[in-house]
Amino acid sequence: NDGTVFxxxxxxxxxxxxxxxxGLCIREITGTSIAEGSELDRDMLAYSPDGTVLxxxxxxxxxxxxxxxxxxxxxxxxxxxIDIAPxxxxxxxxxxxxxxxxxxxxxxx
Length: 109
What we know:
Radius of gyration: 15 Å
Structural class: mainly beta
Distance between the termini: 26 Å
């Protein structure tokens, strides 16, 4: 991701990836294709620091089970879901933490 695209989730539970300069919708990902039996949470969406993965919030129709879905931006495939423990409660936001400069240095050594 070179910073020219962004993502949104609409009331129709569809993730749309937009080109920031042209304003054109590049891709649509429907909520039902992400994880069977789950709906998108319209408030939870985040790009990974390298722009290859989108994290999104998911819940079942009764809002009893919450998940984080990790989507491959290029294929729109859900590569992983992470179940949130019931005692933790409903998540409200999702975000990636970029690597710290010291981590990059340590990893390359």
